[in-house]
Design goal:
This protein has 51 residues and is mostly helical. The protein has two helices and no strands. The radius of gyration is 13 Å and the shape is elongated.
Length: 51
Amino acid sequence: MLGTILLIILILLLLGALPAWPYSRSWGYAPTGGLGLILIIVLILLLLGRI
């Protein structure tokens, strides 16, 4: 149950970090890349049964 909630929150954060506004386009994909890495780690932990 906790893993599912964590996964949903991380997906929402990943979508929110996309550079959609003009002032954030200069940031590149760094915020999305960091959250994507965390999402991949959580997915691996879920598949291994650690969470």
